[in-house]
Amino acid sequence: MSVCTKMPYRKKLVAKTSCAAAMLLGALSLGISPSFAQDFPEGNISVTIPTGEGGGADRDARSFAQVWNKYLPRNVEFSYYPGAAGQVGYEFYMRGDASPSNLLFSNIGPEVIMLELQDVPVEIGEDIVYIQKTSTEPMAIWVGANSPFETLEQLIEEAKTRPVTISVSRLPHPATIGMLALGEATGAEFNLIPFGGGNPTAMAAITGEVDASALPLANPITFGEEARVLGIFADENPVPDQTNDAPTVNEVAGTDLPPLTSSRAWAVQADAIAENPELIEILKQTMRQTLEDPEYIEAVRASGVPAEFIDPGNQEEAMQEAAETRELAIQYRDLLTGE
Question: What is the pTM of this model?
Fold first, then answer.
């Protein structure tokens, strides 16, 4: 990982130029030509997204791809395979070629939980490897602007008198763990309804079809004044100015729940790494360049996502998060499966 990616995000903002220069000098010292990406195979890059078109993963992948093209000038083709909490997309992806040009854009949290809880013939590390994290964000409880619930306390108290409906994108999800654990700790009853993707999940809360929603924090933020964040599953609110200084769930409920986050990440088939390590290295280096480019920061902001969520992480860090998420799924298996 470069020195730049290790820096806290706010410091990175003022160090972009020097970081870019350092990267170029480092590449030259290693004998890597600035045009090393020309060695990457011609043709399109195929990207499988295991959720629906127009959702958060699609938004984030497109923000990345439009800047990545500066460093790896190849057309990117997106395919969407929602279903079974991401299982359909992962199984489809594994039927494709083990090629550096065949990528998966993932949401580590819900998808690792899915792989742990469902009978999926795909093993992280053995079959698929996450090679580059792009962003990380906490889970949040939120409501539409017209909701009668002004605070998380009100929502919890209401859920002690009747089942409160909560839209979620899929049941195997860090946000789902958060709501189930919160209900168990407080005696509140939350009825979780999966909508099969971030977009329909969010719209259910905006229109009042459900009482509230639990999703990654970027989702309600992108709706601006149409959404009201009630609580965040984190040790602190990373973007208080964009969430009306919303409190953490633990602050409100007096609970001790672990931070519940998820990261977007690029992944490849493990065989592609074994067969073409030099081409995978080109992917990694051009991805790092993209993440350190001020144009990428602006692309993220333009999509409505806080730039504070940009969180570069190399293969080791991405795989470590996957391992920790798997342990979380095991810890909360009974709540998630109802067993």
Answer: 0.82
